[in-house]
């Protein structure tokens, strides 16, 4: 078996229950586990089990991304940005810088996405990279997504442009009423009529792109063909020294302006392939041309005083008070609707993922796609903070404030993901990377994120406030969200478990709609493990699922993989034939377990410590599929007769610590087995985790020597009532902490009985 196949891209052992230190495990990954570590290397990446699936086409994906990117930003932020930085030159420069940084961020996301091909985005990347402290990365991302994952800004822009189009005074009450009405309507549509909602957002996405193209063409038309105005100008675009006149080079002002530019490029990483690259190029060109069109048509003083209505002024000057002041602002409002729909749906899916992993209360309810096969629970979680942000602050100041509050903690995660990517390149060079980000792009993102996090400590000229809100309020709110996440994590995952005497572990459950959720039980279940020394012959493969068998191997050290395959495999093959009467043996892999010293951790990726989780290496389905995978030409005939998978477990030295225990097959019901999917580069596999049951009967042999092997039956196709599979795990023996660490080799083999029927 190749190294790529031995190590799954995606796997997730989950413990439905515990027995002392015994947890549930997948055992198909050959990644290193340090002594005392309780998780395999891929544990923190969950299998893809969303019932909504991956069903969109390239064109739908492009519209999804471009609709997510082109929202209220280009219609509302240019005036605010140029007012902040003071000059057209710096404003346009920031749009270029924003596009470059967006490209760097996209490159980081693409590399992560190729390594970890599943939904969840930044949450998956960070929890995979930052495993310790346990659950911290997941909790921080979940907190930020729930508390700051809102679409209030686009709802507000929709309200402002709608009121402007109908020449209605934009009072605080009317703005908030329209914004909340839009948010509520979209939540209902996506939650109850998901397919209809997707069709609507696709249609509005094309309108949005067409509107931006129309604005670009309109600006060019005005410059080329419109007669001179009363001021004798056909273009108001500043030239020469006026391009940089009144520039404010304060880093605090530049940083908040960059947050608004970043907001306008947000959403590129929704799809990790060529769609995102195409959308980035499209958005960058459109944004630059639209900005130029604004400055050509609208005088600079009016641009600076336009607030979020710069597009409305542009249309009115181009097309007069009827079409320009009514129809085209309504088109902008519709564009905002499309963006709200896309963002709401994307964030609802993220919230559903967070609930699925048990980070929210009522996780089963919120993770379910019932009753309309839509992420209704995630939509509700998204609705609450969006509603609060729309209703509470004064709407005249809230738009810019929201963009800054969203942007600041986002830089914490951008910094963490960028540094994490570099760390993974050093620590995990074995991970497959079909795409690799340019190193300088990653470093540039690290540098800028660091600078933006420091920006609040650089006050604007005179330390003045803007719009009645202190200039660094956004940073305090963003930091508060991070601190709240730290407190939430410490309270639920450290303080309470320590106080009540339990350890937090995941438990899987499958909802009626097929969604898999991960919850965290509090109980620890001690079990009795009986020593079989002196009565080893009472236990057999067919009667109990395991058997102790005396056999002396010629191989002693087990240090050379090629030597093991060339010599020891043949010894094991004969051993299995003698012990089982099989007609044919096919060995498909082996695992050597040794305690991993610090000095060897980086140099030997094949060393593994004992796995202290209850597991069965193969599910019934995966066991049968192995025949077709390894012996495709003969699979059909071989599967007509009896097939087994048996592990041959041998100590390399006499076991003094962390012995292997097996649960008698007849004491473990099939109802207690939980399928754990594994996704390899070329195929899919499955293992079993095991739910706790007080009726499980556990056995081991003390002081097992290299001249004794333990035969572990992982699968048997025979259906006549004999043992078909046996769970196993390493376990901790009190008082053995100072003894020599366990060393063992486990060989896995397909065992064929070509003369035996299945029944």
From TrEMBL:
Assigned GO CC terms: membrane
Primary location recorded for the protein, binned into one broad class: membrane
Regions crossing the membrane: 61-82, 94-114, 135-161, 173-193, 205-225, 249-268, 275-297, 327-351, 372-392, 408-426, 438-458, 470-493
Xref: InterPro entries: AA/rel_permease1, AminoAcid_Transporter, AsaB-like
Compartments in which it is found: Membrane
Alphabetically ordered keywords of this record: Membrane, Transmembrane, Transmembrane helix
Membrane topology qualifier: Multi-pass membrane protein
Protein name per its UniProtKB record: Amino acid transporter
Superkingdom of this protein's organism: Eukaryota
Gene Ontology molecular-function annotations: L-amino acid transmembrane transporter activity; oxidoreductase activity
Chain residue ranges for the region called Disordered: 1-40
Compositional bias of kind Polar residues: 1-29
Species name: Clathrospora elynae
Similarity comment: family membership: Belongs to the asaB hydroxylase/desaturase family.
Tagged with keyword Transcription regulation: no
């Amino acid at each position: 078996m190749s190294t790529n196949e031995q190590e799954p891209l995606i796997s997730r052992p989950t413990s439905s229950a515990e027995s002392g230190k015994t947890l549930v495990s997948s055992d198909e990954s050959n990644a290193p586990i340090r002594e005392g570590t309780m998780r395999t290397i891929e544990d923190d990446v969950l299998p893809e089990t969303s019932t909504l699936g991956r069903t969109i086409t390239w064109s739908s994906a492009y519209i999804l991304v471009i609709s997510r990117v082109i929202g209220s930003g280009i219609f509302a932020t240019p005036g605010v940005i140029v007012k902040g930085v003071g000059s057209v030159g710096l404003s346009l420069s920031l749009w270029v810088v924003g596009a470059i940084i967006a490209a760097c961020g996209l490159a980081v996301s693409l590399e992560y996405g190729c390594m970890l091909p599943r939904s969840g985005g930044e949450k998956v990347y960070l929890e995979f990279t930052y495993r310790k402290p346990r659950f911290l990365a997941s909790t921080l991302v979940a907190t930020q997504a729930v508390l700051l994952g809102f679409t209030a800004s686009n709802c507000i822009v929709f309200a402002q442009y709608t009121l402007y189009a109908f020449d209605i005074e934009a009072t605080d009450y009317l703005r908030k009423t329209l914004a909340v009405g839009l948010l509520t309507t979209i939540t209902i549509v996506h939650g109850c009529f998901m397919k209809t909602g997707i069709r609507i957002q696709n249609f509005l996405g094309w309108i949005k792109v067409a509107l931006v193209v129309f604005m670009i063409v309109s600006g060019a038309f005005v410059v080329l063909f419109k007669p001179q105005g009363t001021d004798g100008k056909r273009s108001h675009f500043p030239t020469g020294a006026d391009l940089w006149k009144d520039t404010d080079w304060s880093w605090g002002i530049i940083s908040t302006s960059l947050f608004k530019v970043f907001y306008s490029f947000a959403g590129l990483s929704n799809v990790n392939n060529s769609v995102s690259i195409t959308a980035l190029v499209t958005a960058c060109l459109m944004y630059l041309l639209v900005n130029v069109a604004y400055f050509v048509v609208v005088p600079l003083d009016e641009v600076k005083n336009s607030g979020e209505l710069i597009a409305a002024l542009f249309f009115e000057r181009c097309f007069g008070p009827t079409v320009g002041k009514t129809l085209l602002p309504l088109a902008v409002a519709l564009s905002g609707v499309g963006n709200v729909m896309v963002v709401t749906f994307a964030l609802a899916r993220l919230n559903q993922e967070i609930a699925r992993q048990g980070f929210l209360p009522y996780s089963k309810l919120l993770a379910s796609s019932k009753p309309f096969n839509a992420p209704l629970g995630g939509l509700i979680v998204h609705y609450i903070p969006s509603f609060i942000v729309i209703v509470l602050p004064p709407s005249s100041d809230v738009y810019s404030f929201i963009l800054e509050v969203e942007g600041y903690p986002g830089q914490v995660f951008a910094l963490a993901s960028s540094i994490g990517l570099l760390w993974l390149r050093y620590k995990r060079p074995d991970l497959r990377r079909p795409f690799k980000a340019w190193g300088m792009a990653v470093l540039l993102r690290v540098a800028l994120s660091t600078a933006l996090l420091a920006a609040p400590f650089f006050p604007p000229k005179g330390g003045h406030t803007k719009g009645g809100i202190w200039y660094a309020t956004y940073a305090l709110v963003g930091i508060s969200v991070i601190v709240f996440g730290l407190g939430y994590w410490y309270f639920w995952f450290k303080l309470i478990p320590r106080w009540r005497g339990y350890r937090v572990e995941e438990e899987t459950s499958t909802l009626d709609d097929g969604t898999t959720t991960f919850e965290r039980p509090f109980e620890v279940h001690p079990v009795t493990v009986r020593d079989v020394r002196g009565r080893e012959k009472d236990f057999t493969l067919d009667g109990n699922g395991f058997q102790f068998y005396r056999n002396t191997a010629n191989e002693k050290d087990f240090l050379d993989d090629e030597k093991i395959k060339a010599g020891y495999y043949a010894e094991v093959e004969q051993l299995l034939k003698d012990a089982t009467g099989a007609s044919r043996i096919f060995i498909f892999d082996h695992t050597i377990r040794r305690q991993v010293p610090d000095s060897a951790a980086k140099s030997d990726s094949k060393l593994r410590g004992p796995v202290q989780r209850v597991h069965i290496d193969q599910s019934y389905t995966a066991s049968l599929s192995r025949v077709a995978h390894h012996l495709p030409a003969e699979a059909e005939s071989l599967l007509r007769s009896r097939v087994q998978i048996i592990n041959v477990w041998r100590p390399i030295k006499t076991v003094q610590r962390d012995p292997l225990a097996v649960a008698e097959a007849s004491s473990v019901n099939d109802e207690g087995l939980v399928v754990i999917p594994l996704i390899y580069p070329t195929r899919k596999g499955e293992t079993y985790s095991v739910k706790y049951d007080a009726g499980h009967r556990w056995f081991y042999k003390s002081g097992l020597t290299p001249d004794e092997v333990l035969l572990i039956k992982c699968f048997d196709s025979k259906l006549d009532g004999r043992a078909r599979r046996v769970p196993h795990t390493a376990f901790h023996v009190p008082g053995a902490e100072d003894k020599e660490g366990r060393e063992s080799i486990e060989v896995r083999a397909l065992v064929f009985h070509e003369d035996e029927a299945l029944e």
